[in-house]
Amino acid sequence: MTDHADDSNNADTETRDISDVPAVEIVTTVAVHLMTASAIKLGLGEVTEGHNPEDDKDLAEARILITSLAGLVKSAAPMLGNAHAGPLRDGLKTLQEAFREASDIPDAPGEGPGEKL
After folding, report:
1. Residue 48: what are its φ and ψ, rounded to 5°?
2. Would you give the distance in Å from CA 42 to the centre of its chain?
């Protein structure tokens, strides 16, 4: 049997813990997760025995992830400062270029994932 009071205390502890995390760290962590997921969906994941990263390739999913990353970077960059925003912009640009290269029929300039943002 689960003690609901213990569950409530654990949730409160987790809430208190995240309240101590600076916003810049949360934003950059989310951005890194979006970048990682995008790279995997572009088929750029790690090659391991018995697994071909091309099997994970899904450009429709990559488009969503890259566009989401672009929105996050664009909206947060002015508040993050160049030390944090610069690498995020670079990562975004790299993923956008990788998307263009992975596409059989590339989007028109300015029409790729997140490019309108």
Report:
1. -130, 165
2. 13
Other Cβ atoms less than 10 A from the Cβ of 72: the count is 19
CA 84 – CA 106 distance, rounded (Å): 30
Angle at 93 between CA 70 and CA 109, to 5 degrees: 85
Span 42-52, pLDDT tens digits: 999 888 898 88
**Both tokens of residue 37?**
């997921």
Task: Give me 62's structure tokens.
Answer: 């990559």
**CA atoms of 22 and 91, how far apart (whole Å):** 21
At which residue do the structure tokens 């989007």 appear? Answer: 107
Write down the pTM of the prediction. 0.82
Tokens 């996050």 — which residue? 72
Alpha carbon separation from 98 to 3, 22, 24 (Å, rounded)? 49, 31, 26
- Of 43, 35, 90, 44, the residue nearest 67 (C-alpha): 35
pLDDT band of residue 8 (cuts 50, 70, 90) is: low
The pair of structure tokens assigned to 76 is 């947060």
